[in-house]
Amino acid sequence: MTDIAQNLSNVRERLAAAARRAGRNPAEITLVAVSKNIPPEWIRQAIMAGVSDFGENRAQELRAKYAEIGELAKWHFIGHLQTNKVKYVIKACHLLHSLDRMSLAIEIDRRARKLGIQVPVLLQVNISEEESKFGVTEAEFWPLLQEVAKLPGLRVKGLMTIAPFVADPETVRPVFRRLRELSREATGLSGVEMSYLSMGMSNDFEVAVEEGANLVRVGTAIFGERPI
Ligand SMILES: *Cc1c(COP(=O)(O)O)cnc(C)c1O
Description:
Layout lengths: L3 H18 L8 E5 L5 H9 L4 E4 L2 H11 L4 E4 L8 H4 L3 E7 L2 H14 L3 E6 L13 H11 L5 E7 L12 H14 L5 E7 L6 H6 L4 E4 L1 H4 L5
Parallel strand pairs: 1-2, 1-8, 2-3, 3-4, 4-5, 5-6, 6-7
Pyridoxal-5'-phosphate (PLP) binds next to strand 8 and helix 9.
């Protein structure tokens, strides 16, 4: 049986230690528990153990969990979002980590304005330019940022990346460092905020925290290997 409370306390300790190594305050880092494929019962256990933020990567699953658990948690959308599924997540979503193209931004903007809301988003950057990953390349990043900044229905709050999965997380430190540099370069651009750096997963969150992450997305280290 997965001991969620025990796993959480391990993750929190490692997170705090990484923060201290970097001279950072652990309290400025939000742990987003990635609950994709994880049943609502386990999510409730994590809530009981003090988790406030959850990440989902499928639109219908986010909608279903929001319907069941709702405002007891903050819901982050971290997956590739198809334009025709924006309607499922737009109201439930506390933060969309995965804005990766203008057509998606336009659809979010259209729906957000209808609802009279502003959707907080992070731009997903594919720093390592892995074929298998979504997200814009650095070359595509600047034009997308400038265009998205003009849309009243979205609010850019920062950047997100997924590092390649490697045996030694030290290898991907430059990926996290580069995202932080981009964020610094984008700071001060009109119409955008660079408050959040979403980077780090079970395999590499300590390195990401050392490099400045303030949102880490951790699934397996909390819930164990996912069913399915
Ligand atoms: C699944 C997923 C995670 C969590 O991965 P773990 O290795 O289980 O911690 C984080 N970010 C994204 C975008 C994911 O899809």
